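Input chain follows. Return structure tokens only.
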Amino acid sequence: MTTIAYKDGVIAYDSRQTRDGAIVSDDCSKCAVVDGVSFLLAGAVCDEKALIAAYFGTSSPVPVECSGYVVDGGKLLMVGHDDKTGIWKQELDPSNPDAIGSGAPYALAAMDMGASAEGAVRAAMKRDIYTGGKVRTLTIAPAKD
């Protein structure tokens, strides 16, 4: 899967893409920007476009098996999709570190011990076989009121 971590206004994420337990690439871009909205998603790569479309109002007739972070207008949101309600969005507290993906437990523990978001992804890379490659970051600009 992946590791995506948030702390102190920075989202860090790895660049490994896997399929069926094999590494496909260690240089995959996991940040998609659509209409000025940044999407950093974990889960089934084949469902990412469906989740992004659902975010903008086009519902998916089939299950969508991915979720992730969205930065929209400077706000950090967690987004996902379920069979009953479709797209769901939850605004996250920017003062609270968070992580998603297969390496999330390692990343959260690292941030609990003082690591930055980038350091947390590097820590996850040591133990999670689905996290690897390069560590990239996205800095969130404060929301404009």
